[in-house]
């Protein structure tokens, strides 16, 4: 898979009218509905098996 995944909706208002932001740089998006700009970033893969919604590294001792 060579293309980056795009968000399906705005994390603030839920609208789907999103556009890549030219000013925000890599991973930046603009919502035409609520006029907010936000940025998505991949942090890495989780290790272990977390089932309660937290990250796996929070549960390691």
Word description of this protein:
By secondary structure, the protein is an all-beta fold. It has strands at 18-20, 28-31, 37-39. Strand 2 and strand 3 (37-39) form a beta hairpin. It is extended, with a radius of gyration of 15 Å.
List keywords for this structure.
mainly beta, three-stranded antiparallel sheet, 16% strand, extended
Brief overview, please?
With 61 residues, the chain is mostly beta strands. Helices cover 0% and strands 16% of the residues.
Percentage of β-strand residues: 15-25%
Low-confidence stretches: none
Query: What is the overall number of helices?
Result: 0
Q: Please give the share of residues in helix.
A: under 10%
Q: What is the rounded distance between the termini?
A: 35 Å
The chain-level mean pLDDT equals 82
Order of helices and strands: EEE
**Helix- and strand-based class?**
mainly beta
Q: What Rg, in angstroms, do the CA atoms define?
A: 15 Å
